[in-house]
Amino acid sequence: MSLKDAEVTVLGAGVAGLAVARALALRGADVTVLEQAEAIREVGAGLQISPNGAAVLRALGMGDALEAASMRAQAVELRNGVGGDLVLKLDLARLRPGQGYHLMHRADLIDLLATGARDAGVQIRLLQKIEAVDLGGPKPRLVTAQGAEYTPNLLIGADGLHSLVRAELNGPAQPFFTNQVAWRTVIPATPGEPVVAEVHMGEGRHLVSYPMRGGTMRNIVAVEERKRWVQEGWNLRDDPVDLRLAFASFNGRVRHWLEQVPDVWLWGLFRHPVAHTWYRGHATILGDAAHPTLPFLAQGANMALEDAWVLAECLSRHSNVMGGLAEYQARRVPRCCRVVQAANNNAWAYHLRSPIREIAHLGLRLGSRLLPGPTLRRFDWLYGYDVTAA
């Protein structure tokens, strides 16, 4: 279809929504983003933009902004959580010199994308809480909490984990608790430390940390297995003491970080299937609305960026909306399913118990020393994939 002046409404001003808004606007579409919050902001969390996500940002003309807002990781280190000894080091700067692994604050990525969307002519309307989505008519129909109605030519649901558009396409979600919870927090960073993403692994738990914002802040995400249920969501406060107690047996470096935690967010990790239906009529979904993933491969934002590019490209390649949406789903489902499964597998690998844990760590040490290149190339299918060149 010709995107010139095509009317598109995007629900949600997160990574997926803002990225697809810019991608479509650059192709001539008239794009409006509806966001329920009173301001576009993200607080208290870091994220990683791997080469596959960075390729999209560069193709959208935001490569320089990405470099300015992020830090390039030099390496990834897997460590024994209790002793702190190194199990595996992936030297990204040496083994992948042409590819950037960017560490950044989520708020900085949102700001970058919001600026890019507005510069491309996108209208962002705040305080637009959607109460109902109806896909039964010739056009999608939205009703806001204030009673306003929208009937766009194309509706894109980038409305996250509890997407109204996904529910309209697929029925009520049926996620299940993974018996894992995660804390996230940010602390001041020690100046001059190497730009390394560290994974400290223990029995039934692990902690990931890396510097960001020019080395002034350190992001922490800590995961623990537990039987009791915790509500799904990102906005549950917890006592930092609970986090410290969960990792009290870990090495001094981790304990030192956790002693500095002023406040912390806790959320239960639920597994969602990749959506069976991604579109109907003139409505579709992308990002977490289509394929929520556990945070064990750091691919949530990257998959959203890939979706945004592919959706805009598919719509521009076809003479009608339905053809574009059909190709979009066909191209994205196999890859997203593979990424979601790989993230599920990582949770198991990080939480091994004795004696399997010691055997696995020994194998990782030997493999990384004897064949460091193949160890990193295990993920070529993920990081080396460039949707903008497909």
Automatic annotation (TrEMBL):
<dbReference type="InterPro" id="IPR002938">
    <property type="entry name" value="FAD-bd"/>
</dbReference>
<dbReference type="Pfam" id="PF01494">
    <property type="entry name" value="FAD_binding_3"/>
</dbReference>
<keyword id="KW-0285">Flavoprotein</keyword>
<dbReference type="InterPro" id="IPR036188">
    <property type="entry name" value="FAD/NAD-bd_sf"/>
</dbReference>
<keyword id="KW-0503">Monooxygenase</keyword>
<feature type="domain" description="FAD-binding">
    <location>
        <begin position="6"/>
        <end position="342"/>
    </location>
</feature>
<dbReference type="GO" id="GO:0071949">
    <property type="term" value="F:FAD binding"/>
</dbReference>
<protein>
    <submittedName>
        <fullName>Salicylate hydroxylase</fullName>
    </submittedName>
</protein>
<dbReference type="InterPro" id="IPR050493">
    <property type="entry name" value="FAD-dep_Monooxygenase_BioMet"/>
</dbReference>
<dbReference type="GO" id="GO:0004497">
    <property type="term" value="F:monooxygenase activity"/>
</dbReference>
<keyword id="KW-0274">FAD</keyword>
<keyword id="KW-0560">Oxidoreductase</keyword>
